Amino acid sequence: MTVYKSYNIIIKGQVQDIGFRNLVENIARSLSLRGMVYNDVDGSVKIICQGAVSAVKSLIDEIYSKSSNVGATVDDLKQEEIHAKIFLPPMFFKAPTDELSDVSRKLDIGIQSLQNIESNTLPTRNIEKNTELLIDGNRSLVTGQKALITSQEKMINILERIAEK
User: Fold this and answer.
1) pLDDT at 105 exceeding the cut of 90
2) What share of the chain is helix, strand, coil (3-state, %, to 5)?
3) Domain total for the chain?
């Protein structure tokens, strides 16, 4: 007989602003769990779920094994059983957390990311400059080679005239 239980799960680490809740939602749905996942203001991700004990164990195992796929780092995961009867929606979902304060925080992260783009592209600019210098150097080399060939042709003509005499 399958045993169904309800759990609170708290996950701490680098788990916000990287798609971690989407990962949890997809795993939980694939395991037919009920419940939700949400970002908390303390920087953690919290899960309220209900389902077969084996499915909840699989959820936790997969969170650990797949979190790095989205760039997450799980530093701590705590699970506690909820003994009260909880009525959760039939399909697991990701709760929106985009209230005004969260939008502002995400905009700050976006601005920081945009500011990092210029510093990340500086090496590319140096490569472009060095490539232009290399092209100019090659042009000078070709010009020098043409002058050398012209001089060699003149020398051959002079040597041929000397040989004829």
Assistant:
1) no
2) 55, 20, 20
3) 2
Paired strand residues for 36: 48, 93
d(Cα 150, Cα 25) in Å, to the nearest integer? 74
Q: Name the residue type at position 135.
A: I
Residues in Cβ contact with 32 at an 8 Å cutoff, skipping those fewer than 6 apart: 51, 52, 55
Report the C-alpha gap between 85 and 123 in whole angstroms: 58
Helix (H) or strand (E) holding 110: helix 100-164
Nearest-angstrom CA–CA distance, 113 and 129: 25
- Over residues 37-80, the pLDDT tens digits come to 999 888 899 999 999 999 999 999 999 999 999 999 999 999 99
Q: What is the mean pLDDT of residues 20-44?
A: 94
Please give the mean pLDDT across all residues of the chain: 86
Residue 87: domain span: 4-96
CATH number at residue 36: 3.30.70.100
Same domain for 92 and 108, yes or no, is no
Asked if 70 contacts 23 with a C-beta cutoff of 8 angstroms, the reply is yes
Residue 63 tokens read as: 């969170």
